[in-house]
Amino acid sequence: MPAAFCLIRMLVLSGLALAIAHANAQSYPARPVRVIVPFPPGAGADITTRLFAPRLSEALGQAVVVENRAGAAGNIGAEVVARAAPDGYTLLTAPASLAISQTLYKKLSFDLLRDFQAVSMLASVPFVLVVHPSLPARSVKDLIAFAKARPGQINYASSGNGSAPHLTTEMLKMQARIDVVHVPYKGTPLAVIDLLTGQVSFMFANPLSILPHVNSGRLRALGVTSAKRNAATPQLPTMAESGLPGFESGTWFAVLAPAGTPREVVERLSADIVKLTQHSDTREKLAAQGAETLTMSPAETAAYLRSEVTKWGKVVEASGARVE
């Protein structure tokens, strides 16, 4: 029977495809693994990834190549991974900005929850509110008063439209009722350059990339966005302590693979990354820069991503921010 023969042929081919996929997963990795960082060198996601990459390379027995694909608050790099073969050889260090993008962008070429397979969390990091030393502000309250006296005259930097620092400043604008002007950049490093020269007045930044400038005196830190004071900057009050109750924000970095990546590969990567996050040397290096490691399974990571998309979606809606 032709129909029966076709059905049998399809079942045989499907079985062979599954067997080949399983065999490939069992031999993973057989070549170098590429990790896309959707921000430029020197950004928090880049620093964190390059801290983990050598140890992950040792665990996998293959080179782990970090590649920067910056632009559009991380969306360009994310699209590269979303379109990559789901074989475990192209991964993404996903920042919180990708959860924001789901609501912020009217047209997006990928869906964070549909087009990616969660692997593991890496770290979470609060933001530090920093100003150029030329500003007279020495506290969050000072900055708010300074901005209120000059509506529309004070500008602030962010790592890009729709980035977590951008939306965090939108939260500040709404809660403190100030009118400040947004100047977006293609990543934190470029924004920091202009902040250092006084081209912009303040910004919320990742401590991984900003604390060296604070410690050198080239920038002044006013507060931290975590719920509790940060171990790396215990002298800095939280935003809530500074008169903004409930103000909490920050970013995180997760490892994602393209949707459809074999379960065995995902579990192998997840197990190795979890071990790395528990390594005392890794924890100490991150803590010294204001970050802390996060240990989550693929299922827990996926659930966390869903909650973040919901949380930031509410902030975007309330702020009225939109990017075409």
What does this protein look like?
The structure is a single chain. The protein has helices spanning 2-26, 44-60, 75-82, 97-104, 140-148, 164-176, 188-196, 207-215, 263-277, 280-287, 298-319; strands at 33-37, 64-68, 90-95, 116-125, 128-131, 155-158, 181-184, 202-205, 220-224, 251-258, 292-293. It is an alpha/beta fold and 324 residues long. It has 2 domains: 31-125 and 251-319, 3-Layer(aba) Sandwich (D-Maltodextrin-Binding Protein, domain 2), CATH 3.40.190.150; 128-224, Periplasmic binding protein-like II (D-Maltodextrin-Binding Protein, domain 2, 3-Layer(aba) Sandwich). It has a 6-stranded mixed beta sheet, with helices on both faces. Strands 7-6-8-5-9 form a 5-stranded mixed beta sheet. Helix 2 (44-60) crosses helix 9 (263-277) and helix 6 (164-176) crosses helix 11. The longest helix has 25 residues, at 2-26. It starts with a helix and ends in a 5-residue tail after the last helix. Residues 14-24 have low confidence and may be disordered.
